[in-house]
Amino acid sequence: MLSQALMQLVGDGIFITLVGSIAASLTTVSFLPQIVKGYRTKHMKDVSPYLMALYASGTTLWLAYGMFKDDWVIIIANALGTAFNLLLLYMKHLYRRSSS
Amino acid sequence: MLSQALMQLVGDGIFITLVGSIAASLTTVSFLPQIVKGYRTKHMKDVSPYLMALYASGTTLWLAYGMFKDDWVIIIANALGTAFNLLLLYMKHLYRRSSS
After folding, report:
1. Which DSSP helix (H) or strand (E) runs through A81?
2. Which residues of B touch A61 (CB under 8 A)?
C-alpha cells in the first residue's frame, strides 16, 4: 500500500519536487546556526569572508536563474540564502575588532 | 551584433543554463576558502558545525535530485559540496583541542 503510494508519487514527479524542496530548505537554513553563533559570541575570526561573498554571489545568480525559469522554490531559497550571507558578511565586519 | 548574439543565446536557453552553471560553481567553490583558512590556522572555534552538517544533508538530497533528473551540473556541484562540507566537519572535529 505504502510502496504503491510511493511509486505513484515518483511517477507524478511530486516525490522528486519534494526531495528538491527539502534539499533547498536544508542548504538555505544551514546558515542560520552560523548567524546565531556569531551573534552570541560576537566573534567570527575563524569564518572566511570569502565563503559568504562567493556564496552570496552564487545565490544571486541562482535567483536570476529562478526568475528566468519562473521557479518559486529556487527564487525563495536563494533570496533567503543571499540575505543570510550578506548579513553574515556584515556581522563579520561589525565584529572585526573583537575578532582581530 | 553582440546583442543579437545574446538574444539568440537567451532564445536557445543556453544563457539560462550558463547562469545556472556559474551559480552552481560559485556556491560550490565558496567553501574552499573556509577549508584553506581552517587548514592554515588549525582553528575553527567560530565556525558552526550545524552549518556544515545541515549543508551536507541538503547537498546529499540535491545529489539525489540531480540523479532523478539526470542533470550532471547538479550532480557534480552537489557531490563536491557534500565532500567539502564533510571535510570541514572533520577538520572542526580534528582541531577541537586548539579550538576550545
Report:
1. helix A72-94
2. 19-20, 22-23, 26
